[in-house]
Task: inverse folding
């Protein structure tokens, strides 16, 4: 358990997901041939943005976490809600100029996907349309990378339709995989997200297998598309 506010705030940022997403996007930028400084900018922008989403998620889920995850920083008393709100405000003030540094179109795509993720998860988390913010936000990542540049000067070439579609499909797979560990608690609270509805039909083990295969095939498809049609 975190013993200081700083460590508690780090835990509340969902660091594994934040670092994983930032690293994956930075790697994609590097594979696309972006200069090292732009790869570093992608890494920093996504890391801050994902941290903001993690903090917002923990604030939104305080009630559920009090029943299901009393060890989390906000529910255990290790972290005050006001501290998290302050961190979110600082994060937003940092992520906006970071996004703008990629160029106007790239900034619009990235800030839009952050808004979709935060608002969509809050409104649709326990509903059959829970997949919508995941697929929509992931579909914007190729635009963020394709339009990106340096020092506010982006490019005008849009991402290919194939990569956008595959990114959206990846968002669906990630959504299902991340939801699986909490499905028992979701069922007890009568939540009806898409992963829950699918699990009720197929069973959790089978859904895990299908979602894993789906996600793996989509990742392979993205790699193939990147080497053939390219990002843009």
Result:
């Amino acid at each position: 358990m975190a013993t200081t506010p700083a460590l508690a705030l780090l835990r509340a940022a969902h660091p594994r997901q934040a670092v994983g997403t930032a690293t994956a996007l930075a790697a994609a930028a590097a594979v696309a041939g972006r200069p090292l400084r732009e790869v570093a900018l992608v890494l920093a922008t996504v890391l801050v943005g994902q941290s903001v989403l993690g903090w917002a998620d923990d604030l939104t889920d305080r009630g559920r976490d009090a029943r299901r995850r009393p060890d989390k920083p906000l529910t255990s008393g290790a972290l005050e809600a006001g501290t998290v709100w302050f961190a979110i405000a600082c994060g937003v003030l940092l992520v906006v100029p970071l996004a703008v540094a990629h160029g106007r179109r790239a900034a619009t795509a990235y800030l839009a996907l952050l808004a979709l993720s935060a608002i969509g998860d809050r409104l649709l988390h326990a509903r059959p349309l829970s997949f919508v913010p995941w697929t929509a936000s992931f579909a914007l990542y190729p635009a963020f990378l394709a339009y990106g540049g340096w020092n506010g000067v982006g490019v005008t070439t849009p991402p290919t339709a194939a990569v956008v579609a595959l990114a959206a499909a990846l968002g669906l797979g990630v959504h299902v995989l991340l939801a699986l560990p909490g499905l028992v608690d979701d069922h007890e609270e009568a939540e009806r997200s898409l992963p829950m509805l699918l699990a009720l039909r197929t069973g959790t083990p089978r859904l895990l297998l299908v979602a894993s295969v789906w996600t793996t095939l989509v990742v392979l498809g993205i790699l193939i598309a990147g080497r053939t049609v390219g990002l843009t």
